[in-house]
């Protein structure tokens, strides 16, 4: 899911639709892109941008997020679930629904979920997928801050009991290391929505500086680990929580071979949570990878 021109967009393969969620009995006409702040009867709406969706058979499944990856769950994580039916809370069977698709489900429990949407031609020739993790009831800040707080308290107690300068120095280094690790990305690579590509990237700015133009270098591999050569790449980005995009239009300006590409025009104008979406097109595949950043 990505914010685009103040709209939430769902990409089902190359097929796009405006996406929004309502909880009318609880929050009236308020629209949500992914996370739902309260339990209750929720309405999922997709307004098609691509005419192909009007003639496609669409099914919609909601499962409990048992991947352990939270918001970073991707197609490969869902595929690893042995029995989807065991974790499914709602399933709408394939149906042809012209123009606008809607789904109603009453969430009785807070928690983490994954939405799975598929669109097919009905003759088995092509099936496109969209997978989006989301939360109901906003599960909060998570367990890591509490773990870090406990570690800090234990270390302070250690200083007090030992009263030795060397222990203090070592303790400070330990806490700094823990805090640095908690702010780092949990992933060194990103898998595309349908699992076709794996991406790694490096920025010429480390750390990334707000409002500074810079380049990224990306390495693209297929599911077998082979370099993806001569791909066409489009770059979009934004801050989903603020529903706005990037201040620039990054483009690929170099192809070094062996699956390595240079992207110029990267700039982030404010701190916070960002998502960068790279759509990768080859002769046989088209898929999108989402890179998450906290600046």
Explain what you see.
The protein has 295 residues and is α+β, with helices and mostly antiparallel strands. The protein folds into three domains: 2-136, Immunoglobulin-like (Sandwich), CATH 2.60.40; 144-183; 190-294, Macroglobulin (MG2) domain (Immunoglobulin-like), CATH 2.60.40.1930. Helix content is 17%, strand content 45%. The protein has helices at residues 24-27, 75-79, 84-87, 144-162, 165-183, and strands at residues 2-4, 7-12, 15-22, 31-32, 40-48, 57-64, 88-96, 100-107, 111-120, 127-136, 190-191, 197-203, 214-222, 232-239, 244-245, 251-257, 260-266, 273-281, 286-294. The strands form four sheets. Strands 1, 2, 3, 4, 5 and 8 form a six-stranded antiparallel β-sheet that branches. It has a five-stranded antiparallel β-sheet with strand order 11-12-13-17-16, with no helix packed on it. It has a four-stranded antiparallel β-sheet with strand order 7-6-9-10. A hairpin with a 2-residue loop joins strand 2 (7-12) and strand 3 (15-22). The chain is globular and about 65 Å long. The chain starts with a strand and ends with a strand.
